Amino acid sequence: MLSLLSRRSGAVAAGAVLLALTLGGPAVHAQSAAPAAPASAGNAGANPSGVMQQSIAYWLERLHQASRNRAYVGTFVYSSGAEIASSKIWHVCDGRQQFERIEALSGAPRITMRRNDEVAIFFPAQKLVHKDRREALRQFPDLLRAPNRRIEAFYTARVVGTERVAGLEATVVDFVAGDGLRFGYRIWSEQRTGLMIKMQTRTPQGRVLEQVAFTELQLDAPVRMEQLARQFEQTSGYRVVHPVQRASTAQEQGWRQRNEVPGFQSMGLHLRQDPQAAPIAQWIFSDGLASVSLFIETFNPQRHTRETALAEGATHSVSRRVAEHWVTAMGEVPPETLLLHIQALERLR
Questions:
Q1: In this structure, are residues 310 and 21 in contact, taking their beta carbons and an 8 Å threshold?
Q2: β-strands 308-312, 291-298: how paired?
Q3: Run of H or E residues at 337
């Protein structure tokens, strides 16, 4: 099941990678988060001269716009615990269409091509391509969604200094979570363009759960959109696999939430169907930065033998039985948040 659910299975060049911790204790209500720890390098201990404190909506808009109408090539590294993975990215966007090629430089050979929300993952050794639409996929460095007005009720932004990353000067900004239901983020925004060149996911106490950062970056690189478009379609000699899925609604599938988990809104539900297995519904929620997926399937006592809680880096997973169904909640949020999502589920029929 987890191999099916894992966003890391080839697709997550964003550094959102997955899972292994034991959860204990009941779900808790939102708590006040302690301030994020101060920056540890450069002059990130104080507000840099000339950089005004701005709202989180300002910073999200700046980060969002930075990757539009811009081309770049770079190498970035993802780290979580003992795991380190590196990839090379080619990115181009003309304000309407966005193309990316992300090639894994460590581990098994893998190339992820993205055209807007279409994703093609090439596995050269197996001569296999997985093609999918990833409406909720967050890809580095276009990781953050467009601003959501509700974000300001749950996160605040604070400039903590400046620091060099990949030879470029960056403003360091903390996105501080206002409760215990979500993690905080530390963002390095390149000063000239606003592009995010490093990101950490952090606990309220400032512990880094995972991070992704450019080690080299060429801004305004000569990346040709038509060349990436051809590569996206070059599947000759490969077996192409398309997921069998269709858009649905929670009501159509017989579910609703008794109450909203603070800040998290429904982003839609898809039904994934495998000819050799029972269908699985994926219900996605987001607070504008963090996201949670509920994977709902029919309970099978042979496979669903015990409730579990797993984690790797910032990503947690909690599995529980709900009525005659098995629900796995997964997201880059504390496990208590996942339990609240499961506990809010109610079967309509």
A1: yes
A2: unpaired
A3: helix 335-344
Task: Provide CB contacts within 8 A for 160, sequence distance 6+.
Answer: 36, 38, 39, 44, 45, 46, 47, 172, 173, 174, 186
> Distance (Å, rounded) from C-alpha 63 to C-alpha 45?
22
Q: Give 149's DSSP letter.
A: G
In whole angstroms, give the CA distance from residue 332 to residue 142: 17
Burial class (CB in 10 A: 0-12, 13-18, 19+), 207: exposed
Q: Which of 283, 302, 307, 303 is nearest to 293 (CA)?
A: 283
Indicate the pairing of strand 155-165 with strand 308-312: unpaired
Helix %, strand %, coil % of the chain (to 5): 10, 45, 45
Strands 239-241 and 128-133: parallel
Nearest to residue 73, comparing CAs of 89, 55, 58? 89
Instruction: Report how far residue 321's alpha carbon sits from residue 154's, in angstroms, rounded to the nearest whole number.
Output: 30
Angular region, 276: left φ>0, alpha ψ -120 to 50, beta rest: alpha
Tell me which residue of 276, 250, 243 sits closest to 265, measured CA to CA.
250
CA-to-CA separations, 243 to 16, 26, 254, 280, 349, in angstroms, rounded: 21, 36, 23, 12, 27
Q: Name the pairing type of β-strands 291-298 and 255-257.
A: unpaired
Taking only the tens place, the pLDDT of each residue in 278-324 is: 789 999 999 989 999 999 999 999 999 999 999 989 999 999 999 89
Pairing of strands 184-190, 265-272: unpaired
Quote the CA–CA distance of 81 and 245 in Å, as a whole number: 34
Contact 12, 5 (CB under 8 A): no
pLDDT at 50 (0 to 100):
57
Query: Which residues, in sequence order, are CB contacts of 154 under 8 Å at separation 6+?
Result: 177, 178, 179, 182, 262, 263, 287
The pLDDT mean for the chain works out to: 82
User: The whole model's pTM is what?
Assistant: 0.80
